[in-house]
C-alpha cells in the first residue's frame, strides 16, 4: 500500500467508512498481533488485546489527525498502553517472572516448526520476556517489524537519540541473556 | 552468534494470528459504531464562549479585589485621612456650634424680657401703696347717714379723679395683661 493510497484510506475511515478501516485492519493486524503476542506470550490474551487495539482505533478514528507518521504508529501506541494495562490488572494474581513458564499454544508450535531452529526461537522468546518493557518494544519494533528509529521514537514518545541508546542497551542485554 | 540473533528475530516475524479469530474480530469491529466527534464549528463556538466568559469573570474578580483592597487596606482608608469622614465630622461640629449659638441667643432674649417684666411689676407694686396712703388721708364722715354717705362718695370720687397719684384703670389692665402673658 502506497503512502498516498493509505492517506486516502485513512481519510475515508475518518469519515466513518468501515470498509476503509477494514483495509487498514488487514494491513496491520498481523504485526500488531505479533507485537502483543511476544509481550504477553499467551495466544488468547494476545488475541483479546489485539481485538481491543483495533476496536479502540476504529472508535476514535473520527479524531485522528495525520502528523506525517504511518498509521501503524497509532496502533502500536494503543497496543503498548493495552499491554501495560493488561499487566497492571494481572500483576496482583500472576508474577511477571512466571510468564517464562507460559505454555506455547499448539498452533504457534506448528507454525514455528517451519523455522530452522525452534530451539533458538524459544530461547529468544524467553530472553525477551525477561527484559524491560522498553527493551522488548525496541527489539520487536526495530528487528522484527523493521520500523525506522524515528517511527519507534514516535510510538514510544521518546527522542530518536534516546531510542538509539535504548536499542544498543537492549541488544546488549539480549546477547547477555542468550549467553547465560 | 550475532547474526543468528538477528536471523532468529526476523524469523519471529512468521508468527501470525489464527485466521478464524482474525475474521471474527474484524467483523465485530467493523459492525461496532464509530464514536462521532462534535462538529468543529460547534466546538469552536463553545471554546470561544468559554474563553470570553472566563475572561469576564477574571476581570470582575480583579476589579472587585482591587476596590476591596483599596477600601480596606489603603492608607487613604484611615479615619483621619478619609475625606468623607472628615467632611461629616466638620458638618457635625458646625451643627453643634449653631445649636449652641441659638441657645445663647434664646437665653439672652429671655433674660432681657424677664428683667423688663420684673421692673414693670415692681413699678406697679409701688403704685397701689400710694393710692392707699391717699385714701387714708381723705376726710372722715361725721355721721353714717345715707345722704352724708352719698355726698362723701361723690366728694371722694372727685377727689380721687383729681388726685394724680391714683393709677388709671387702663394702665392696670395693660399691666395685668402683660403679667398674664
UniProtKB/TrEMBL annotation, chain A:
<dbReference type="InterPro" id="IPR039425">
    <property type="entry name" value="RNA_pol_sigma-70-like"/>
</dbReference>
<dbReference type="GO" id="GO:0003677">
    <property type="term" value="F:DNA binding"/>
</dbReference>
<dbReference type="InterPro" id="IPR007627">
    <property type="entry name" value="RNA_pol_sigma70_r2"/>
</dbReference>
<dbReference type="InterPro" id="IPR013324">
    <property type="entry name" value="RNA_pol_sigma_r3/r4-like"/>
</dbReference>
<keyword id="KW-0731">Sigma factor</keyword>
<feature type="domain" description="RNA polymerase sigma-70 region 4">
    <location>
        <begin position="127"/>
        <end position="176"/>
    </location>
</feature>
<dbReference type="InterPro" id="IPR014284">
    <property type="entry name" value="RNA_pol_sigma-70_dom"/>
</dbReference>
<dbReference type="InterPro" id="IPR013325">
    <property type="entry name" value="RNA_pol_sigma_r2"/>
</dbReference>
<keyword id="KW-0804">Transcription</keyword>
<dbReference type="InterPro" id="IPR036388">
    <property type="entry name" value="WH-like_DNA-bd_sf"/>
</dbReference>
<comment type="similarity">
    <text>Belongs to the sigma-70 factor family. ECF subfamily.</text>
</comment>
<dbReference type="GO" id="GO:0016987">
    <property type="term" value="F:sigma factor activity"/>
</dbReference>
<protein>
    <submittedName>
        <fullName>RNA polymerase ECF-type sigma factor</fullName>
    </submittedName>
</protein>
<keyword id="KW-0238">DNA-binding</keyword>
<feature type="domain" description="RNA polymerase sigma-70 region 2">
    <location>
        <begin position="24"/>
        <end position="91"/>
    </location>
</feature>
<dbReference type="Pfam" id="PF04542">
    <property type="entry name" value="Sigma70_r2"/>
</dbReference>
<dbReference type="InterPro" id="IPR007630">
    <property type="entry name" value="RNA_pol_sigma70_r4"/>
</dbReference>
<dbReference type="Pfam" id="PF04545">
    <property type="entry name" value="Sigma70_r4"/>
</dbReference>
<keyword id="KW-0805">Transcription regulation</keyword>
<dbReference type="GO" id="GO:0006352">
    <property type="term" value="P:DNA-templated transcription initiation"/>
</dbReference>
Automatic annotation (TrEMBL), chain B:
<protein>
    <submittedName>
        <fullName>Uncharacterized protein</fullName>
    </submittedName>
</protein>
<feature type="region of interest" description="Disordered">
    <location>
        <begin position="158"/>
        <end position="181"/>
    </location>
</feature>
<keyword id="KW-1133">Transmembrane helix</keyword>
<feature type="transmembrane region" description="Helical">
    <location>
        <begin position="45"/>
        <end position="69"/>
    </location>
</feature>
<keyword id="KW-0472">Membrane</keyword>
<keyword id="KW-0812">Transmembrane</keyword>
<feature type="compositionally biased region" description="Low complexity">
    <location>
        <begin position="158"/>
        <end position="171"/>
    </location>
</feature>
